[in-house]
Amino acid sequence: MLHPERQIRALILAGIVFALVSCEPQDYRPGFWLSGEVEQTPVTDWSFTDKIPEIFVETRTWYGIPHSVTTVCAVHDGALYVPSVYLEGGEFPDARFWNRNVVRDSRVRLKIGEQVFEREAVLVEDSAEWNAVLSAFSGKFAFWKGLAEKSEAERPKLVFFRMDPR
Question: Mean pLDDT, consecutive 10-residue segments, the chain of 166 residues?
């Protein structure tokens, strides 16, 4: 049996290793910090994301430890958009922790491939833009095509964020 001091050191080391290994989100499990090189060059063409099925979004929490999630993205009129789907119901932004974070502090970081992009998440409130963005998502993903074909009353609450430069 290990000496109590060594047990504590082993637990601390295990905690550090766990934190480093589990920083980024995976599937439905959220994560913390996103790793990777921050892209310094302004992006004028997001079409490279057309072939990328998932991205990570890192938000700022009120307690200072980033919260990141896995999501999808689509491009409309040269701008990049990220959705939030309320499949289980609930109200925006309360039913999604990351949505609450974005409403409180709109500065986000996106990890696309191995690149990290610092952006400003802007809620899409204009109905024409919202419908065009839904169409962009439905052109990229079968799941979104199914949602777009449903009436507004039949589909879950959908929220879109435009990822503007900071």
Answer: 73 59 72 93 96 96 96 98 95 96 98 97 99 98 96 96 98
Task: Give the C-alpha separation, 82 to 141, whole Å.
Answer: 13
Residue 80 — φ and ψ, nearest 5°? -95, 135
Residue by residue, DSSP assigns 7-70 as HHHHHHHHHHHHHHHT-S-BTTB-BSPPPSEEP-SPPS--GGGGG---EEEEE--TTSS-EEEE
- Give the structural domain span for 48: 4-165
Task: Give the CA radius of gyration of the chain.
Answer: 18
Q: d(Cα 29, Cα 32) in Å, to the nearest integer?
A: 10
Supply the pTM of this predicted model: 0.85
In contact, 69 and 98? CB cutoff 8 Å:
yes
Round to whole Å and give the CA distance between 3 and 10: 10
CATH number for the domain that contains residue 144: 2.30.110.10
